[in-house]
Amino acid sequence: MTATDPALTALAQSWCALSLLHGKIEAHVERALQTKHGLSVREYSLLDVLNRQHDGEGGHLQMKQVADAVVLSQSATTRLVTRLEERGLLARYLCPTDRRGIYTDVSEAGAALLAEARPTNDAALREALDEAARNPELAPLVKAVKTLRVPA
C-alpha cells in the first residue's frame, strides 16, 4: 500500500467523517449541558459512570477503570474527580480491602444534578444525531450509532 492507495484514502476519509460526527455531537451536547446545568460532557460522563456503580463484588470502580470508562488518562480523570469533589458532587474514600486503592462515589448533590441533566443530555444527543443524519456523508454513521447495541 502507498500513501495514495485508494483503500487508504477511503479509510482516511471514513475516519475523518467519524471524527466530524463525534465532534459535532460532543459540541452540541456540551453546549446544552453547560448552559442548563454547568456541566461539561466529561463531567456528566464521569458522574454517569460513577452513578452506575453498585455495592458488592466488583461494584466499585478503581480510578483506572473510571479513566477507561470516560476515555481519559488517569491523571486527567484524577483532576476531573478533584474538581467535582470540590463542587460537592463526588466523595472519595479508601478501599476497605486495599489501602492503596481509592474509590469515588457520587454524592446526593451529584446524583440530583445527574438526574436533572440526563434529559438534557439525551435530548441534545438526539438533536445532534438528527441534524447529522441530514448530511449525506454522515447519515450512514448516524444510522450505525442509532442501531448499535453495546452491553452495559
What does the model show?
This protein has 152 residues and is mainly alpha-helical. It is built from 6 helices and 2 strands; from the N terminus they run ααααββαα. It has helices at residues 6-37, 41-51, 63-70, 74-86, 108-133, 139-147; strands spanning 90-94, 102-106. It has a two-stranded antiparallel ribbon. Strand 1 and strand 2 (102-106) form a beta hairpin. The longest helix has 32 residues, at 6-37. It is globular and about 55 Å long. The protein starts with 5 loop residues before the first helix and ends in a 5-residue tail after the last helix. The mean pLDDT is 89.
In short:
The protein is mainly α.
What are the key terms here?
about 150 residues, two-stranded antiparallel sheet, 6 helices, about 5% strand
Distance between the termini: 38 Å
Identify the strand order in the major beta sheet: 1-2
Question: Which structural class matches the secondary elements?
Answer: mainly alpha
**Unreliable residue runs:** none
Strand content: 5-15%
By DSSP (H or I, 4+ residues per run), the number of helices equals 6
Helix content range: 55-70%
> What is the chain-wise order of helices and strands?
HHHHEEHH
Total number of strands: 2
What Rg, in angstroms, do the CA atoms define?
18 Å
User: What does the main sheet amount to?
Assistant: 2 strands, antiparallel
Q: Roughly what is the average pLDDT, rounded to an integer?
A: 89
